[in-house]
Amino acid sequence: MDATNRRSTCSTFTNMETINDILKRNDLSVTDSRKKILELFLKQNGALNHGVIEKSIGDDMDRVTIYRTLQVFVDKGIIHTIPTNDNSIRYALCKDHCEAGHHHDNHVHFVCDSCHITTCLDHVTIPEVVLPEGFKPKHAEMVVSGICKECE
Amino acid sequence: MDATNRRSTCSTFTNMETINDILKRNDLSVTDSRKKILELFLKQNGALNHGVIEKSIGDDMDRVTIYRTLQVFVDKGIIHTIPTNDNSIRYALCKDHCEAGHHHDNHVHFVCDSCHITTCLDHVTIPEVVLPEGFKPKHAEMVVSGICKECE
DNA sequence: GTAACTGCAAAATATTTGCATCCTT
DNA sequence: AAGGATGCAAATATTTTGCAGTTAC
User: Fold this and answer.
1) CA–C1' span, A72 to C2, in Å?
2) Of A100, B2, B47, B87, which is most buried with the most CB atoms under 10 A?
3) Closest to A46 (Cα-Cα) out of A5, A84, A74
4) Bigger pLDDT: B113 or A99?
5) C6 C1' – A32 CA distance, angstroms?
6) Is A118 helix (H, G, I), strand (E, B) or coil?
7) Strand, coil or helix: B132
8) Is residue B52 within 8 Å of B43, Cβ to Cβ?
């Protein structure tokens, strides 16, 4: 429902070879739907939610297929969910060792108040915090909002 | 849909006087619905989502009223939303100067993997992070998950 | 050829809106 | 008494499920 879109920061491995590789590496059969959605994530480094994906892909694909494909990708650790304040799940590519299963997406996400684009700040690591006695941390998420590089 | 429930940490101002005060301070008329929902938040320090509130209150109140009441509370700065990975908005009381309008909810939230209760770690402040050139931070959210004090 | 994937239909769930009625001030 | 708040009905949006047809390997 909002413009959660593109931001190119990193690698430029948007070729079919890599897409196929990623799918095969995760024991997934290579289908058009999966290739298209994965390509979207590779092209638009940053976060996407269901609505944006649906808009980008258009009527070529059933809405249900998008739901199921995203679920499969999350299960395989190809993408991960980013916490949001509104109730729209945002997904982003897992970097690093993520394909292995458990992902190491311990980087900060930035949401721009102006353009609403979510950017993965791959090189900003989430700092450790000291919790009260008795709390055992396993995972942390951090979302910073403000004005991004492009909108300043 | 999940058990996002109670956790008492702080103040014990769960008396009707305070509830009325909060509503009046925010130019809201004092109604049963608002008193009940606000009481819930005061009693159960921690986060609540729509489903939990609906369950706690039962059939005394229309579902629509809960939606509208929560929206009003957010607008007035009485409660704020907590980012989540699933698509359920969680709400928590604003502490400190929050009633003023802009809230200072710069504390860490903890979600227990075992009991699914969200706790406001009021005394754990979100650390500052250094962002890449050009990013202007305005606000930060941090959610840590793991095992909480009660479940360890 | 077989298992897995997809599209379609439909169910289940969640959220929003309009309006008449009731309650707070 | 007047304006806002609530309940009800219904519209809209979102997500899930079942099943039959199709595709990847």
Assistant:
1) 21
2) B47
3) A5
4) B113
5) 10
6) strand
7) coil
8) no
Q: How confident is residue A83, by pLDDT bands cut at 50, 70 and 90?
A: confident
The alpha-helical segments, DSSP class H, found in chain B are: 16-25, 32-43, 50-57, 63-76
Distance from CA of A88 to the nearest CA of B (A): 6
Q: What is the pTM of this model?
A: 0.75
Closest by alpha carbon to A37, among A83, A88, A76?
A76
How far is Cα B143 from Cα B83, in angstroms, rounded to an integer?
8
| The three-state (H, E, C) secondary structure of A39-75, written as one string | HHHHHCCCEEEHHHHHHHHHHHCCHHHHHHHHHHHHH
Nearest partner of B129 among A122, A125, A138, A130, judged by Cα: A125
Q: What is the largest CA-CA distance in chain B?
A: 53
Tokens of B123: 């005394």
On chain B, the residues whose CB falls within 8 A of the CB of A147 are 135-136, 138
Look up tokens 């395989």; give the residue: A76
